[in-house]
Amino acid sequence: MDVETIVKWDPLPPGCFKINSDGAFNMQISKGGRGFIIRADTKNLFCAGADQFMVTSALHAEAIALLEALKEAIKRGISKAIVEIDSQNLFSYISSQIEPP
């Protein structure tokens, strides 16, 4: 069964940015990757970044990805943003729903 996903851009409030980050982890070599994209309220790409690094878990990779995205946003003067991540565990830790390991 094929599943089709429709992705739709919801306009942001004026002056707001959307930050999306993601991390990946290869347990066999303890290496991870991270990426982020920041879009302006016009939907246009504002900036993006990616890198590889040594990490201990998928959660560690997700956390580094988010941290680096937020550092870049601050460096570029962004003060109003919507942040999207796909890690439920990281979201729970950040929102203090559970204690981090």
Automatic annotation (TrEMBL):
A Pfam family this chain is assigned to: RVT_3
Molecular function per GO: nucleic acid binding; RNA-DNA hybrid ribonuclease activity
Span of domain RNase H type-1: 13-101
Name of the protein described by the UniProt record: RNase H type-1 domain-containing protein
Native species: Ananas comosus var. bracteatus (red pineapple)
